[in-house]
Amino acid sequence: WITVPGAAVGLALQTWFGGFYGGLASLAGAGLGLGIFLVLYIACGMGAGDVKLFSAVGALVGPQTLMVVFVFTGLIGGIAAIALAISRGRFRETLEKAGALMRGTRAAAGPDALRLPYGAVIAGGTLVSLWFS
Q1: How far is the C-alpha of 89 from the C-alpha of 114, rounded, in Å?
Q2: Could you report the per-residue pLDDT of 53-62, keeping only the tens digit for each?
């Protein structure tokens, strides 16, 4: 209920303030956000809601700012993941599983995997990037 109206508002605002090219930038941002996180979704690293949310953020900020949002989201997500693993006493196990996932020897997270609410991380990355810009 947030992502579709958010994308529509982003498209409307970008078109209102930037005209035709603003609308194109909004669509490009939405497509870029969808493409980046769709890859992560296919690799079982993220939920579909996170993909739609990042696409909506792309519609709101456009493709250039979305890349800055992506960097800050990754940094905040890494910090949050480390904090979560340490707080649950599973830091070493998490590092081992991440290494196995990168080597391709482990396909997907199991039912005992730590879950990070990435929507909050996306929101944090967006706010930090807007604050710095």
Answers
A1: 11
A2: 999 999 999 9
Does an H or E element contain 12, and which? helix 3-42
pLDDT on residue 54: 93
**Reduced to 3 states, what is the DSSP secondary structure of residue 76?**
helix
Residues whose CB is less than 8 angstroms from the CB of residue 34 and which lie 6 or more positions away in sequence, other chains included: 51, 52, 54, 55, 58
**Dihedral (Cα; 45, 49, 54, 59), 10-degree rounding:** 150
Q: Of 55, 58, 76, which is closest to residue 66 (Cα–Cα)?
A: 58
CA distance 86 to 129: 26
The tokens describing 14, both together, are 């970008």
pLDDT tens digits along 64-122: 999 999 999 999 999 999 999 999 998 998 888 778 777 877 555 666 777 888 899 99
